[in-house]
Structure formats: structure tokens, C-alpha cells
Amino acid sequence: xxxxxxxxxxxxxxxxxxxxxxxxxxxxxxxxxxxxxxxxxxxxxxxxxxxxxxxxxxxxxxxxxxxxxxxxxxxxxxxxxxxxxxxxxxxxxxxxxxxxxxxxxxxxxxxxxxxxxxxxxxxxxxxxxxxxxxxxxxxxxxxxxxxxxxxxxxxxxxxxxxxxxxxxxxxxxxxxxxxxxxxxxxxxxxxxxxxxxxxxxxxxxxxxxxxxx
Length: 213
Description:
- The strands form 3 sheets. This protein has a 6-stranded mixed β-sheet with strand order 1-2-3-4-5-6, with helices on one face.
- It has a single domain, classed as Metallo-beta-lactamase, Chain A, CATH 3.60.15.10.
- The chain is an alpha/beta fold and 213 residues long.
- The model has no long low-confidence stretch (mean pLDDT 97).
- The chain has helices at 35-48, 62-65, 68-75, 86-90, 92-99, 170-181, 200-206, and strands at residues 2-8, 13-19, 24-28, 51-56, 79-82, 111-113, 118-121, 124-130, 139-143, 148-152, 155-156, 159-160, 189-192, 198-199.
- Strand 3 (24-28), helix 1 and strand 4 form a beta-alpha-beta unit.
- The protein is built from 7 helices and 14 strands.
- The protein is globular, with a radius of gyration of 16 Å.
């Protein structure tokens, strides 16, 4: 699996394009907001000669879904997220209005993701990790062969996700980190929803929020 990262929208959200071995592509958390961001997205797909087949959401906070409607309509692809995240997804327009953002709701999920289910990107397994806490239906996408985790907003380089938002839960976040994230191999690359990549081992050693877990 190969990836391209686009830093998008006013929240500097990471939109990830993932490319499989046979020309299939996924997008994780399309925060595409401006025409320039959308053009860059088109260019990455064209350069790889790849076919986009799905939109996969770690969670549905507004900065992670600003481009869902455009992406789904432009490429005629389905959206996937966890059932517990539906309440966040369905009320995203209200959050957009509060933030002064232009937003048109995307289509509902083609299928709900579930924790411990295995998906495949051109034959490469992708484990869905149910990691609530930052939001009720937050998931991560773990590629054991590529040793990569797309962690959404639960773990960042030197920090963890915001647990003071509506529907967030500090204890659930800590449990998700302890039981689902930090048990992954230490050489796993972590590609978060904001900021640069890190690794499980580096965060275990240096992240101040994880020292007492």
C-alpha cells in the first residue's frame, strides 16, 4: 500500500489517499474544502492511474467530512463509518454552521464498519479497530502488512485526542489507547488526523499522556 497525504481545510486536517497493488484507491477522511484541495486530490489519483472505490471515515467530526459529498458525487463511491458515529455524521451541518463553514451533507453509509472486521485493499488486509473516546463511533484502520495505522484523532505525535467535546469520553479514550492502540507492534507507523506521522514505539517512550497507562 502506498499513500499520499493532503493537509486540508481551515483545521489542517489530514486527508489520506491509499493506493493498492492493482490500481484501487481509498480515501480516509476527505476534508477537502477548497477547489485547490480538490484539484490536488484529482491530480494524485490521475498520477497513480488509480480508481477510487470508497470513502472510509475514522469519525465524522466536521473537519474530517467536509469533502464527503463532493468526493462521493464526483467518483460515485460509497461511504463507510461505524454505526455509533451516525449521530455525529447526521448532525454535522449544525456544527458547520456554528463554525461558519459551508457544508452539504454527504450520503449515508453504504455499510457500517464494525470493530475487528477485516477489509481488503487490493488483497491487503485492513483491520478495523473500534476505538471510541474522541467520538462515539471512532475507528482506526490498521494495515499489518504495511505496518501502518490511520488513527484519526485519538493519537497524535506527542498528544492525544480532545476528550472534552460533546459525546467524547475520557475513560473510553484511555481504554481504547491502552487496549487497542498501544498493543500494536512498536514499529507501526501512526498516521493521525492532524500533524505529522509518528510510531507506536516513539509515543510509548515520549508521549506524556501515555506514561501512566
